Amino acid sequence: MYDVIVVGSGPSGSYLSYELSKKGYDVLNLEEHREIGKPVECTGLVSERVFKYVKSKAGINSVHGANVYFPNGKSIHISKSEKTIVMYRDDFDKDVSAMAINAGADVKINSRVMDVSVNDEYAEVKYKQDGRIKYEKSKIVVGADGANSRVRKSLNYEMPKKIISTYQVDSAYSIEDQDDVNVFIGSENSKGFFGWAVPSGDITRIGVGVDHVTAIKYFKNINKKFGESKILGINAGPIPINYLKKTYGNRSLLIGDAAGIVKPLSGGGIYTGIISAKNAAIAIDHALKNEDYSEKYLSEYQKLWKREIGFELKKDAIIQRYFASISINDKLLNKIYENINDGNIIKKINELGDIDYPSRVVLSIILKKPVLLKYLIMKR
Question: Where do the structural domains in the chain lie, given as residue ranges?
Answer without folding.
Answer: 2-316
